[in-house]
């Protein structure tokens, strides 16, 4: 038993020391298919989506994001609260070792709260990602209209009318949280 434990702690030590010798976490993350959601003038918030792929053998946490296009940028997820989809802030988004995490409508996303200007389809915006080790990655992405995608997303859930209402509710929540 004692021997097994000491072998375990030795291998832990080895993996910790090999971790510190690695390249930055930003270098180990590949971003694909990033885009930001088109929003009309006066909209309280937009969101950014992408797939994060981790080429290293340790989990990597995205701990914050930043953008010049919005006042506040937060990491968010959706939770299903008795059939009502609600957004909430999360402290980090984890990308598993040698795996990927998808930020997509209805799931994890980077919230762009208080856009300085309306985001129009065809524009390009930049979102800076910061990882747990402090390394950063700037991601340039197109602004895309979500109309088609939102419809596809709604279908399996309920009828479209209700979902539409919930989306507005989300926007209101953000407004209350951040405009005080
Ligand atoms: Cu959100």
UniProtKB/TrEMBL annotation:
Secretion signal span: 1-23
Regions annotated as coiled coil: none
Matches recorded under SUPFAM superfamilies: DR1885-like metal-binding protein (SSF110087)
Bilayer-crossing regions: none
Swiss-Prot/TrEMBL keywords: Signal
Domain of life: Bacteria
PANTHER family: BLR7088 PROTEIN, COPPER CHAPERONE PCU(A)C
Protein name in UniProt: Copper chaperone PCu(A)C
